[in-house]
User: What shape does this take?
Amino acid sequence: MHFKTNNKSRNANTTMVIKTIIMITLFFAPLILLATGIITSIWALFLLYITSGLGMAGIGMGVMHDAIHGSYSKNKKINKLLSYTFNLIGANATVWKIQHNILHHTYTNIDHADDDLNAPFFLRFSPNAKYYWVHQFQHIYIWFFYSISTVSWITTKDFVRLKRYRNMGFLDKKNEYNKELISMVVWKTLYYVYALILPMIMVPQSWGIILLAFLSMHFVTGLLVSIVFQIAHIMPSNEFPLPNENGMMKEDWYGHQFATTTNFSPNSKLLFWLIGGLNYQVEHHVLPDVCHVHYKNITKIVADTAKEFGIPYHVKKSLLHAISDHIKMLRWLGKKQTGANINTMVP
Assistant: This one.
């Protein structure tokens, strides 16, 4: 009703188009400079790669994210075109669409169904996941793994998940898996050529220094992206429900999204711009077909609706507050107790 009443589109506006240009430029401009060979100093090398990392995070959270959800434009071809920006930063749009749009948004915080909860054995993101003794230290070492998350993404994770999704029946059309696999190899090869190999050839520094600078770009991106997505769901206030013996959930889909998702830092305009509005995760989860530039304008409507129906609406006042609660949750998950009702158990 908000968009009809105000005669507004729920898709991208001029502000979003400008932001898209800025983020793509922020990613590619430093890499183009590195490819020219005019950069010679180590500090400039690292600065350019880290700047490119911020652009990479901006593309991931603020451009491709809307495009793959179909909220960037009414035109499916434009959404498809902009979804390829994810391939340009070394990842894969097809894998992300299955992982995020289908598995995460449909089964948010449901163990073994929400693929965002599936992690190596040394990380535990759900009270329903198997416990190992090493989890008691995860709130300490997890920051390293958050930092290298996009390194894993561009090397092995996409291939592993593509195969798993085929086994789950997602890539079931004739030769669809083989075509996507070939496409993935081509896109990733292109990415490594302009993001790493060309700088190694053109920049007059050792390959080891350039590789370290390249990794620093991913450390920045990985840490930023992981924090933003994880503090929205792995929180003490959120629920981790499981279906009953009949396969039914306690809440309907909308109630489930409210119960499993948290907003943070709602008053920060800078953070909102940098992370594609994902500090308004509740609005995103209940209205995934709305471009993120509109979240701030609909948050009161969403909050009032939740209050009207007696549904929880979780908000953390700042990013630091959200990170602090996320750490508390990780520490609690590092203990052996289990169960989905944890709100009164986390200090």
